[in-house]
Design brief:
CATH topology: Rossmann fold
CATH class: Alpha Beta
Strand content: 15-25%
Helix content: 25-40%
CATH architecture: 3-Layer(aba) Sandwich
Shape: globular
Order of helices and strands: EHEHEEHEHEHEHEEH
CATH superfamily: P-loop containing nucleotide triphosphate hydrolases
Largest sheet: 9 strands, mixed
Number of helices: 7
Length: 231
């Protein structure tokens, strides 16, 4: 009997990319990774281009305008097309500040972002972890893959996308990793540094993920409210 492979999960200095079509489970998995981060000890910014329904359910996440100051906790911005320059400047501010995580859903919307590319390449020393979700890996910056610590892949149909993934991982490089062998909501999970590829079962559902968010974020928000009361 083959022993189960031990897996590592992303730390506060890692870059993680999750790939899959609509309804494949990638965003839920990305939020599961986010819920396991130190969201109660550092700020995390979610860049929510598509107004995702699951992101909208995160308890104690704070919806803020682009440029708002970030303290410990989870913040959500929902950029419009005309706010692209403002978002770019915001990402540069995060780069300068450090100690701040970034979650991007959908990654191809920032394919030409110099700020995000710089964060991907140089953000480890500043402790700026990144989680990027995307439907179309062929359309995102290649730095998302070349700088990734972990690559998690759900069902992918387009052959060009599968080729892009195979250039940076063993996924889709042989018959053992194919869409035909991957049940719904399962994923291939590749640890780049350890060259470790495993198949993961579905992550917990949003109710369980949100329970983790609540456990971590509620004390942060309540303490902040108390501080405001005393000021």
């Amino acid at each position: 009997m083959q022993a189960k492979k031990q897996i590592r999960l992303p730390s506060i200095s890692d870059r993680t990319v999750l790939i899959g079509g609509t309804g494949s489970g990638k965003t839920v998995a990305g939020l599961w990774h986010l819920s396991r981060q130190q969201i109660d000890g550092m700020p995390w910014l979610i860049v929510d281009f598509k107004r995702d329904d699951n992101i909208a359910t995160i308890p104690y996440a704070q919806h803020v305008p682009i440029g708002a100051p970030l303290l410990n906790g989870v913040y959500v911005v929902q950029p419009l097309l005309h706010e692209k320059d403002a978002l770019e400047n915001y990402l540069w501010d995060i780069w300068n500040q450090g100690e701040t995580g970034i979650f991007v859903d959908e990654g191809f919307m920032l394919a030409d972002s110099e700020a995000l590319n710089t964060i991907l390449m140089q953000g480890r020393s500043k402790r700026v972890p990144v989680i990027v979700c995307t439907q179309r890996p062929v359309a995102v910056s290649r730095f998302v893959f070349s700088e990734a610590s972990f690559i998690q892949v759900f069902r992918v149909i387009d052959k060009r996308d599968r080729k892009t993934i195979s250039e940076f991982s063993p996924i889709f490089g042989d018959k053992e990793t194919s869409n035909e062998t991957l049940p719904p909501f399962y994923s291939y999970y590749y640890d780049v540094a350890r060259h470790n590829l495993v198949t993961l079962k579905p992550v917990p559902n949003m109710a369980a993920i949100n329970a983790t968010f609540q456990d971590k974020l509620k004390p942060v928000i309540e303490e902040r409210r108390q501080m405001r009361t005393y000021l």
